Fold:
Amino acid sequence: GFTASLFGESRFTGEFGGVPVTIRQLTSYPAETEVTFEVTVPKPVRFTLRVRRPKWAESVSAGCDFSEKPGCIAVEREWSGTQRVTVRFSCSVKIRTDFCRDAFVTRGPLVYALPIEAREHQLLAYETRPFREVAYESLQREREALRIHEDDRGSFVYEPAVSGSWREQTVTGKFWDGAQTQTLSMVPMGGTILRKVTFPLAADKRA
Structure:
């Protein structure tokens, strides 16, 4: 059969047992953790469609029967005409640590960042518009020193975007500046310009 190892809006054409096969991925991954596979064949043919199960996926569901295989799920059936299978991966917010033992926040395939407001300065304008060079000046330098206290690791909560825009989904949690706790919202790293992604872990006692 065929194996979907990578996720993203795409179209694959191949052949199985002499029958042409077209498989489209319909998804906004990694903004969402749901992928629809649209399989089209000119005549009935039986094969297995395997879908990689990401390590971050806590559970997986689909609108059809499937079996669990090492590192993937398998949908074995006779395909006819155009059929769709939607695979959904469930996940939760995780506080992970990098090689420097600093913390960073993930949910599924996305890394979240604390946005830092900035002022844009144009450095150079080219005759070929709209190309130009710009720099950004931080307006929230205090955010650069924030840490995550060990006691607050479990405070981070995911909120989907009401607008449906992936840039507006948030993870809200508590940050420690050495004197007080602040509750702030993070957004997907890809939706930021200036940002703080990693945070030293604090274990000192708080007043």
